[in-house]
């Protein structure tokens, strides 16, 4: 089993997202995350899909996606040089003054911005890779047990500029 | 010129050369039916149930090679298509199914007879789409036909809201369509073909394994030529049967859990398995780890997703079966494999599929069909009747079989025969069914009668859902749970054998046929089989039911028990020994 990334270009039409997720659920493929948005061409949407699978299943997944009429292109990002980021918001509630000091200290070390704030809570924004976000969440959960509210955007990825010259 | 969506629909059908439309009206399709009224170029066939309708369109498409076209209303009309959509799509049958839909402003409103048929059929069709704007209509229909018939053929569902049927707009129908996400593979990789032939030339024990893809690609002549040229024995799946004439000396038989001993043994012992147009379904592989375990596997398929899914393939070739076979013929050479072919011939000789049971057997019935009908389309239902048909029917260029191989849909055979007869009025059309499956779409007897279709319906009546009963007998200690079709509430709960308390007919198929205006003949003795079939053949006006009362507990043999490798096969059951 291995973590994989797929960049998927699809028709920007009603029901396409349902087709893609339906394919994953119908065939029992494991789907970790999926983001979707329109591209520079507003008839095309681009998805970044994260999943975990063995080699054989992954080959099937790519083939199955490719044969969908709505899918324009499938690119395997797993072992490609890419830039990939995920946005993460973390709200920390019931903060004491010490907690708030600690939060600002954390924000100096990690790539976190404190974007909102009041007497007892703080809202953090963090944009980094999914696995680094995972690590941050584990850390903050331990530190501020049962006081977190988390929302994550899912990863978006794009090839590095260098790759086009290869 | 501005025309309504409904008028454009008719125009599109004509441009696509649709001459038969299988259609059932309803509130959200009424404008389309209004446009069809008095239309001379399109024959509208009105079945009695939408499931019968879609199977008829399927039978029409499989037997003619044209796209089958369905038109039904929204809601229940659409959902009644579902089984038939899955059936056809599974077997690569080109259908375009139009479903009426509530007006666009009511979609999502839980309106009367509204269902999300696109959502329902997405996973069982090749493509499903709702027409959302009148200006998209022409292109959507063009796309639907193009997708249905190209690549691996399949079903396209077009959901057609009522307001778009009524709305005025352009009258142009495009001559072609370009879909950026859909580019069916037109060529074959010559390098891979060469590699395949090199492997073949070194083979000592090669076999061809042919699936439905060869029949769909209409490559039967080419396949026969390739087999004769190389001298390699040909084994088929159920869907591939008839790829070369079954009486051909190179034809070995069907593979699979009810395949012949020779075919299963040849697959298990071959050194090169050259497969074309099959997806290695679990019913043909048996225990997958031991399937052709010493063989180099070559696989040609139009669908990339069928390659290396169930069986790891050494030489994959993506392409249309006909193109690939033609490319192979150009460079193939005769092989020196006499020792191997003699071995297979010995297996064939010593382990034929033969019913030794006394009395009237399905084998006798099906072989009589072989004898009497040399230019025929034979449809089967699903279950024992189907398996016997696939074992004993002789197929060639003039005698074809239509069967629900992938989905295994009971109730398929009879309505499919209706569609086949409409598409092939000059051919004899025979539906082989069981008493269970026949009752699933019996209402289509009315359709066959009103369209004056002299179809011959052979019901192999054993009063059981025989295939499941056979499994209950062999693997579940004869616990006949809900498989007896003659069960009465007053029967003993632990009854596991037919006895004198069993009611004679449930239903009386002869009276039932007569009530529709069809004819019925009941055959109980072997010596009456041929006379009944001859009578039926001479009848040219109405459908005719021949009910064969067969032994109640006759089994399909041989059988590979679940979980066993292909060559670990039970040849004869206790019951069949008679």
Detailed description of the structure:
The complex is a heterodimer of chains A (166) and B (578). By secondary structure, chain A is an alpha+beta fold. Chain A has 2 domains: 2-79, ACT domain (Alpha-Beta Plaits); 83-159, ACT-like. Chain A, domain 2 (Alpha-Beta Plaits, 2-Layer Sandwich), CATH 3.30.70. Chain A starts with a strand and ends in a 7-residue tail after the last strand. Chain A is 31% helix and 41% strand. Chain B is α/β, with parallel strands linked by helices. Chain B folds into 3 domains: 3-169, Thiamin diphosphate (ThDP)-binding fold, Pyr/PP domains (Rossmann fold), CATH 3.40.50; 190-350, TPP-binding domain (Rossmann fold, 3-Layer(aba) Sandwich); 362-549, Rossmann fold (3-Layer(aba) Sandwich). Chain B contains 24 helices and 20 strands. In chain B, helix 1 (5-15) crosses helix 2 (30-36) and helix 11 (220-230) runs parallel beside helix 14. The longest helix of chain B is centred in the first third of the chain and has 15 residues, at 50-64. The relative contact order of chain B is 0.11. The mean pLDDT of chain B is 95. At the A-B interface, helix 1 and helix 2 of A face strand 6 of B.
């Amino acid at each position: 089993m291995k973590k994989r990334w797929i960049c998927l270009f699809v028709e920007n039409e009603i029901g396409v997202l349902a087709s893609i997720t339906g394919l994953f659920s119908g065939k029992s493929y494991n789907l970790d995350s999926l983001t979707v948005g329109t591209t520079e061409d507003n008839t095309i949407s681009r998805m970044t899909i994260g999943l975990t699978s063995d080699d054989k299943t992954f080959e099937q997944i790519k083939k199955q996606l490719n044969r969908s009429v709505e899918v324009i292109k499938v690119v395997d990002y797993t072992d490609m040089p890419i830039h990939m980021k995920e946005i993460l918001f973390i709200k920390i509630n019931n903060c004491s003054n010490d907690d708030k000091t600690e939060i600002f200290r954390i924000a100096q070390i990690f790539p976190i911005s404190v974007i909102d704030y009041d007497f007892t809570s703080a809202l953090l924004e963090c944009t980094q890779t999914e696995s680094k976000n995972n690590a941050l969440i584990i850390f903050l959960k331990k530190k501020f047990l049962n006081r977190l509210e988390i929302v994550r955007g899912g990863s978006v990825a794009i090839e590095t500029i260098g790759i086009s010259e290869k | 010129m501005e025309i309504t969506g409904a008028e454009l629909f008719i125009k599109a059908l004509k441009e696509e050369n649709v001459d038969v439309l299988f259609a059932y009206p309803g509130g959200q399709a009424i404008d389309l039916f209004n446009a069809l009224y008095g239309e001379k170029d399109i024959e509208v066939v009105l079945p009695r149930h939408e499931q019968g309708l879609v199977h008829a369109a399927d039978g029409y498409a499989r037997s003619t090679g044209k796209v089958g076209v369905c038109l039904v209303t929204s809601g229940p009309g659409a959902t009644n298509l579902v089984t038939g959509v899955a059936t056809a799509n599974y077997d690569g049958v080109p259908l375009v199914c139009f479903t009426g839909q509530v007006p666009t402003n009511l979609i999502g409103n839980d309106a009367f007879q509204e269902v999300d048929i696109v959502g329902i059929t997405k996973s069982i069709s090749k493509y499903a789409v709702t027409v959302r704007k009148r200006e998209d209509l022409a292109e959507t229909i063009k796309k639907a036909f193009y997708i249905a018939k190209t690549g691996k053929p399949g079903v396209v569902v077009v959901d057609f809201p009522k307001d778009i049927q009524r709305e005025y707009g352009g009258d142009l129908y495009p001559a072609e369509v370009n879909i950026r996400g859909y580019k069916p593979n037109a060529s074959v990789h010559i390098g891979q073909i060469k590699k395949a032939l090199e492997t073949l030339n070194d083979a000592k024990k090669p076999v061809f394994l042919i699936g439905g893809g060869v029949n769909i690609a209409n490559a039967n002549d080419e396949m026969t030529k390739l087999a004769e040229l190389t001298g390699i024995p040909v084994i088929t799946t159920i869907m591939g049967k008839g790829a070369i004439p079954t009486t051909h000396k190179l034809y070995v038989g069907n593979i699979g859990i009810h395949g012949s001993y020779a075919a299963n043994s040849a697959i298990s012992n071959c050194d090169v398995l050259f497969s074309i147009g099959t997806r290695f379904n679990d019913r043909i592989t048996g225990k997958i780890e031991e399937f052709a375990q010493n063989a180099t596997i070559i696989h040609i398929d139009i669908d990339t997703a069928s390659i290396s899914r169930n069986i790891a393939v050494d030489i994959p070739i993506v392409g249309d079966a006909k193109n690939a076979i033609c490319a192979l013929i150009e460079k193939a050479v005769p092989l020196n494999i006499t020792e191997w072919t003699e071995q297979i011939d010995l297996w064939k000789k010593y382990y034929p599929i033969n019913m030794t049971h006394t009395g009237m057997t399905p084998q006798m019935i099906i072989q009589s069909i072989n004898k009497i009908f040399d230019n025929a389309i034979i449809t089967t239902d699903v279950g024992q009747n189907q398996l016997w048909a696939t074992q004993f029917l002789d197929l060639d260029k003039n005698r074809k079989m239509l069967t629900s191989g992938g989905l295994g849909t009971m109730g398929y055979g009879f309505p499919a025969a209706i569609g086949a007869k409409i598409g092939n009025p000059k051919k004899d059309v025979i539906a082989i069914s069981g008493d269970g499956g026949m009752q699933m779409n019996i209402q289509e007897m009315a359709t066959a009668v009103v369209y004056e279709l002299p179809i011959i319906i052979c019901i192999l009546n054993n009063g059981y859902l025989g295939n499941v009963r056979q499994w209950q007998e062999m693997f579940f200690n004869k616990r006949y749970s809900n498989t007896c079709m003659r069960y009465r509430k007053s029967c003993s709960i632990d009854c596991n054998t037919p006895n004198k308390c069993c009611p004679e007919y449930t239903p009386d198929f002869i009276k039932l046929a007569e009530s529709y205006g069809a004819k019925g003949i009941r055959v109980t003795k072997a010596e009456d089989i041929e006379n009944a079939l001859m009578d039926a053949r001479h009848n040219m006006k109405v459908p005719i039911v021949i009910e064969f009362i067969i032994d109640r507990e006759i089994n399909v043999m041989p059988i590979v028990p679940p979980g066993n490798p292909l060559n670990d096969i039970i040849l004869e059951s206790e019951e069949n020994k008679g």
